[in-house]
Amino acid sequence: MRLLPPLSKKATQKVAIADHDGVLTCFGMKKGEAVPVFKTLPGPKIARMDLGGAVGSPREKIFVCSGFQVRGFTKKGKQFLTFEANLTENINAMHVSGADLFVCASYIYNHYLDCKDQDYFLSGDKINDVLYLSSENLTRPFPILACQDRILRVLQGSELAYGIEVPGPPSVLELYNKDGGDEILYGTTDGKIGLVQIGDQSASIKWEIDNDKKKGGILCVDTYDIIGDGVSDVLVGRDDGTVEVYGFDSSGDPTLRFEHVLSESVTSIQGGCVGKESYDEVVAATYTGWVTGLTTEPQRAEVGPGDEVKMSKEMQSKVDALRAELEQLQVKVLQGREQYHQTSQSSTAVSAVPVFSINDKFTLCQDDASYSLTLEVQTAIDNLLLQSDVPIDLLDVDKNSAVVSFSECDSEHNGNFLLATYRCQANTTRLELKVRSIEGQYGTLQAYITPRLQPKTCQVRQYQIKPLSLHQRIHSIDQDRPMNRLSLVGQFSFAEIHSWVVFCLPEVPEKTPAGESITFYFHNTFLGTQLEATYCKGEGHFKSDNISTISILSDVLSKEATKRKINLNISYEINDESVSHTLRMIHPKLEYQLLLARKVQLIDALKELQVHEGNADFLIPEYRSILDESANLLEEYKKQPAHLERLYGRAAFYILLAAGCAELKLKFVSQV
After folding, report:
1. Whole-angstrom Cα distance, residue 149 to residue 549?
2. What DSSP designation does 167 have?
3. Looking at the structure, do residues 69 and 183 belong to the same domain, yes or no?
């Protein structure tokens, strides 16, 4: 979605929005009603939309991309451009600046000038967004790629100028100053926002906003002075339906000024004047196609006691129109039900399976070492069935109002470790779950989604639980830690060993990297240990301060090589100090969880004492603080089932290693 520039200072703006049916729609608002300007015919799914125009003129031309084709439309709906990009994959990111067109597929970036090839770049990881930065402060303009490996890549022609490390996988880029400047905003899939100042040789991060309240990931960002203080505010849309407006205080630090929660993920957000002259709005588009406007116009009228609230003619007409529309919809629903009932009784009728799309995301959360599974459907969800062939824990989620029930599993005979059913409340279109896996045990988690449609139909989504599922990509590791080493030598290709690493570890690009060798760094979100993986054709070297990580890698990689009938020469270097080092890392986590469990055990007894005595003044400060924080303690304990037992298991494993002999260590390395 984009807002077209106004024809004059006081005029309202038109809204251009594209959808998955390939339809581009442009409309304006008049007296609270949507007035269509133009609408294109259906076609292939539109992946991206951007505005463009000649340099120095208003950006009022609309560009959309479908598959590997880019089309351009005037503000009145006349198509003036059809361009086929020479890409083998569909376009998933696009930016237009004057006569320059920038398009990206999964790993490929292409720059066209007047529809002619200019530059090309092959990225090391998936490209999520692209931006073109041109400023008087820079000696030349720079294209910038937001890549999944937590790096913003700044290009110079077809070459990489430098990279900027960001705290999460960047999902969206936006110019902070739409009229120019050298600052860009980025949003990440784990909910962080930042501002980066781009230079000719390097860049600096001016500020970052952490996702302390565990809100959804960032899907869209825009800048607009919605508060009216002369400074552009940051408008943010998240995948949990949250709309945020960040202003800036006197020191230039971002401050949350406004927040509103919608029932669906916010796919696009813009600031402008759409509904009424002189009143700015935040316009948001959601996953199922709703366009919502949050206005600065006062919506409340105060009256004294006994006074009658009088409705304006404009408001009364809106209410009447809504009532008439509601009645029409009710009539259509009744007609549709009657027609379906008659058709279902017919002997010649053919039943067609209804088609529905699912917006799903399965991501690792660093803070609590769990996976977040988000499912969003265009219609209401009836129920969800989860099935897993590996042991996993289901964690409580505050936003989840569905009723869950568990079925007994016989893992020995049918391989099921989890069977859980979520029965959703009416009009639930989005469901968020959390699961925690156990490293070393890998398999598949399957989700069967059944919407409230007739005839009943179901779709299945599969999510791989990898052997080192709790590891997350990072930019570097601490080389001073005591490291255990695993080396593999054999007759395997670079692509083969890369496919093995992809099978073992999350956040590794499926495409084989360019070059002869590659190095990845990982962080264990549960224990805090680290892993370095370096490999090339015929060789693979892995080192970690966690001996369990090395043993899991050895086991899985040797199995994968055996499947392909490849002989491996495997060698180990076990560092005795790594065992005590890992125990020292586990100790504070274990101590915290043990203290939390003890506090939770005392809550009921302390509450009973408080009721019996009438107050808690006689208790020592430690017990009074437990009573004061009882709600938070219970909530935290409830969110982490089996956390203490897992830490006990890890600690016991390393204590055995520390106390055992060399034979015991080799046994663990070869069998665990």
Report:
1. 22
2. S
3. yes
Distance in Å from the first CA to the final CA of the chain: 52
Distances in Å between the Cα of 268 and the Cα atoms of 8, 63, 224, 245, 253 are: 25, 16, 14, 14, 25
Whether 207 and 224 map to the same domain: the answer is no
Reported as a single tens digit per residue, the pLDDT across 260-286 is 999 889 999 999 999 888 889 999 999
The residue segments making up the domain with residue 384 are 358-465
d(CA 20, CA 204): 37
**pLDDT value for 666:** 47
Please check whether residues 285 and 432 belong to one and the same domain: no
CATH code assigned at 392? 2.60.40
Query: Is residue 345 one of the residues assigned to a domain?
Result: no
Question: CA-to-CA distance for 434 and 449, rounded, in angstroms?
Answer: 16
Q: Sort 86 into a burial class: Cβ within 10 Å, 0-12 / 13-18 / 19+.
A: exposed
Contact call for residues 142 and 155 (beta carbons, < 8 A): yes
Query: Tens digit of pLDDT for each residue in 575-621?
Result: 888 888 888 888 888 787 788 888 888 888 877 877 877 777 777 78
393, exposed or middle or buried, with CB in 10 Å at 0-12, 13-18, 19+? Answer: middle
Summarised one tens digit per residue, pLDDT across range 323-374 is 888 999 899 888 888 887 777 777 777 767 778 889 999 999 888 888 999 9
Helices (H), 479-629: 494-504, 547-563, 577-613, 621-628
- CA-to-CA distance for 536 and 256, rounded, in angstroms? 47
Residue in the structure block whose two tokens are 């709600």: 631
In terms of domains, do 252 and 379 share one? no
Q: Of the residues 296, 315, 349, which one is the last residue of a structural domain?
A: 296
**Residue 337 maps to a domain:** no
Q: Are 221 and 174 in contact (CB under 8 A)?
A: yes
Which parts of 347-415 fold into alpha helices (H)?
Answer: 411-414
17 in the same domain as 160: yes
Q: Which residues contact 645 (CB under 8 A, 6 or more apart)?
A: none
Number of domains forming the structure of the chain? 5
DSSP secondary structure, 534-550, as one string: EEETTEEEEEES-HHHH
Tell me which of 247, 268, 296 is where a domain ends.
296
> What dihedral do alpha carbons 213, 218, 222, 224 form, nearest 10°?
-10
- Taking the C-alpha atoms of 266, 271, 273 and 276 in order, what is their torsion angle to the nearest 10 degrees? 40
Burial 449-469 (b: 16+ CB within 10 A, else e): bbbbbeeeeebeeeeebbbbb
